[in-house]
Amino acid sequence: MKQLLILTILSFVSITNAQKKTSLTLKAAINYALENKAEAKKAKLEIEKGEYQIQEIRSRALPQISANGSLNYNPILQTTVIDGAAFNAPGTTIQAAFGQKWNSTAGVSLSQALFDQAVFTGLRAAKSTREFYQINNQLTEEQVIERVANNYYQVYVLRQKLALVDSNLKTTAKVRDIVKGQFDNGLAKKIDLDRMTVNLSNINTQKQQIINSLQLQENALKFYIGMPMDNQIDIPQSEFQVTPAAISEAPNTANRSEYLLLKKQEELLVLQKKSVMAAYYPTLSLAASYNYIGQGPEMPWFNKPSNGVYWSDFSSIGLNLKVPLFTGFGTKAKVRQADVELRSVQEDIKDTQLALDLDYKNAKTQIENSIITLQNQKENMRLADEILKNINNNYLQGLASLTDLLDAENASTEAQNNYTAAILDYKLAEIKLIKSKGELKTLINN
Which residues form a coiled coil (predicted)? Predict the structure, then answer.
């Protein structure tokens, strides 16, 4: 009995936790998405990756140090033919073998770029590269915000529709019970009762369809914010006070992330072109090395002069100058390719600026129309509700037919659905207007 009681308590706790709902405001949903959604995380990883790329570029301007070593065995030594006069034997030829059967070298080498136009251009591009990834992260966050807000409002509208259909269901059930009572007392026809039963069944079917759609939309919202599907969410009603959005002068498209990203890309392509053109410039570098060599008839490692193995060191310091004279027009072709890429992105900038202006114009028109529609639908809903109440009273007093009552119920339901649809249209239009002004971040700053 004790074990059974413990299991029962644990089961109840598990069910309670599973059914616990998370109150999810729009701000909370967006912040959750920015912290958990894959796109937002990947954009931040791109910033981190960009920092490493910058370090790679900077490394080209720093000294390059490496260690080297070798061990060679020469089974047959190369011979060299020399004049015997060098050995007091004029008129003769001597064939001599130089070197040892074994030799081993170990050393350290250093190189330092003193003048390399490509390196200098890369260093100037480092700052632009960092800014490019930061703007890209900002654009990704705005895309996440827009997607989350759109789905969030769609969930709200379906919840509103579900609340309305529940209200209609209760009202219709009461009327059906009244008609049934009249039928039982011989005051109503069976066809009247059947019509009310069919109407009630249709509302139940509509309710189930809305429940299914709501579940799908909630799952979509959870996906877009990166929330586990098992979590239950609750959207506060107070989040949706309709207030007309401020419609100001046309915004400056130069502040939009889409535009800024392309401008930064243009800047990087200009530097890329300069980097390619750097191949026309000479390069100068410093080279230095220090080595230790062992030679002898035996393997040099661990052997001494007593075994015929001798070790000595040597070093060198020098300058390397490279002056490009002719590359088969390869550099020229690369420069032209870079120029084509630059001109292509410049065309994208012009087209994007035009598209951003279009977005604002369309968003402004849509929000103005949505406000008018919303006001009209709200008034229609109020009138339809009044008509339904009057006809319902008249029907109970025998002054209106059942057909009139059903028509009034359908008209009221349609007016309510139109109003909730108008709210959704308004909210979606509001998001587009906020986006066109480059102010999506205000949805989480308020």
Answer: 360-394
